[in-house]
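Structure tokens please, single chain.
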Amino acid sequence: MSHQPKYVHALDIPVPARDELDEGTQKYFALCDEKLGMVPNVLASYSFDAVKLRAFSDMYGDLMLGESGLSKLEREMIAVAVSSVNQCFYCLTAHGAAVRELSGDPVLGELMVMNYRAADISDKQKAMLDFAYKLTKTPNEMEEADRQALRDVGWTDRDIWDIASTVGFFNMSNRMALAIDMMPNEAYHSQAR
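Here you go.
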């Protein structure tokens, strides 16, 4: 298994070789290899700066794996819906694979990438994704009716916070990926199909 990706991003900021990384990052990447079979290129991209990598990873871990009224699948669905609006190839590929894997449904993963409105999802999930879409596409138009629509289908105010935090994180992540032409790991393309 190669520890140096072929092409991670377009910037002239080299991705350090594994043995050049600090001990904590080396351990983190070894865990990625063990759990995922790879180090996601988004993490490799941040590896030139251990502080930035840690901040990104900590926020991701809390949003996507922390305690929440949203399931892991629902958080991945948000990542895909946001990335679809932003047309972020990296995140559509990586998080589309996660939706396929977590749902056990390759068709759902593809529908989420193309058009979540065509997917067979619950009214509660559709409301969540409508909110994510609007917060991404026209954030200045958010109003109380948008929050109330989430409450009406059973989301709590804490859930709304988590939905909005996830939307905000993936908008930031999409913009970074698009700005530096970050490429998804090849393995994502064939996962859970």
